Amino acid sequence: MEKSKFETSLRRCAVLLMSLSTKAATIVMSRLTTAQVEAISLEIARMESVGGAEQEDVMHEFMGTKTSALNVSCGGLNLAKELIRQAMGNDADPVIQRIEQSIEQKPFAFVRRIEPRNLIQFVQDEHPQTIALILSHLPEGYCAEVLSGLDPEKQLEVIQRIAVVGSADTLAMADLERGLEMRLASLVNGTNLHVGGVEHVAGILNVSERSVERTIMEALAEEEPELVDEIRHLMFVFEDIAKMGDKDIQSLLKNVEASKWACALKGCSEPLVNKVMKNMSSRAADNLREEMGFLGAVRVSDVEAAQQGIVDMVRTLEDAGEISRPTGEEEEEFVS
């Protein structure tokens, strides 16, 4: 499973800077905003090394020409700090301090350097609570890969525990650290951290394979139907329709009455309204605009009900194989 577009772009920027000379990388970073410098530097700090094939691919994209195979480049915190200091001068210290805190204090940060398939080998025999605590600290796409490698029964148990983790106290984290440090790495003790939760579960399932998501949700529906409703509400919201492909939106339009669209689109973002109307005939789009105008002020509860009805139709059509619901990994479409 691929990373999200954001994660991939950030990594490619980091690989590019690591492949350049220190002088050239510094010049590039000096032209970035503080937030951009911090994000890319944090990615560099998290990477131990980059293979020649990946460097070659990134440099080819950057330069527009084929490059010869490159040597392995090393990243790490020291390189990140050096680039920040040279690019930002006197303003470097606060950025370096934040990166050091992110790298050194974030629980399970070392797991990010391990391939998901390797982590699966390690955690598949662990207690679901242990797996849940680990995954609660990791990116959703990474979690989805690990989850897909577990047995269906354990998938359900892990998801249930992630949804209610809430926080992990210092003692619990220390106990887990002692159990894991010999096989992976040591954890950093800290104060209570907010981890896991229903939103994290929704994010994991959003980027999981459809078969994994369906199996978990069906099993959850039998044991905790209220939790299923909460997860579904967070997994796909009405505004996400703007990320759907044109053909899928056209299929959705055929299955939802125009009057429901008129109510559901009241107060929505312009890109979403334009995306929907773009997939209608000119006459139908004009009629929809006119009907939205005639509606005037609409109660928020009515708008939300109309939107939820359309979201439910998205799920129905997806289950029937007629459309594909977008995930965080797919490229968003933009309208002018």
TrEMBL record:
Transmembrane segments: none
Record bears the keyword Membrane: yes
Bilayer topology term: Peripheral membrane protein
A Pfam entry, by short name: FliG_C
Gene Ontology terms: biological process: bacterial-type flagellum-dependent cell motility; chemotaxis
GO molecular function (one): cytoskeletal motor activity
Domain Flagellar motor switch protein FliG N-terminal: from-to ranges: 9-108
Localization, UniProt: Bacterial flagellum basal body; Cell membrane
Every Flagellar motor switch protein FliG C-terminal domain range: 218-324
SUPFAM superfamilies named in the record: FliG (SSF48029)
GO CC terms: bacterial-type flagellum basal body; plasma membrane
InterPro entries according to UniProt: Flg_Motor_Flig (IPR000090), Flg_Motor_Flig_C (IPR023087), FliG_a-hlx (IPR011002), FliG_M (IPR032779), FliG_N (IPR028263)
Domain of life: Bacteria
UniProt domain Flagellar motor switch protein FliG middle: residue ranges: 116-189
Keyword field: Bacterial flagellum, Cell membrane, Cell projection, Chemotaxis, Cilium, Flagellar rotation, Flagellum, Membrane, Signal
Signal peptide start and end residues: 1-24
Protein family according to the UniProt entry: Belongs to the FliG family.
Name of the protein in question: Flagellar motor switch protein FliG
Name of the coding gene: fliG_2
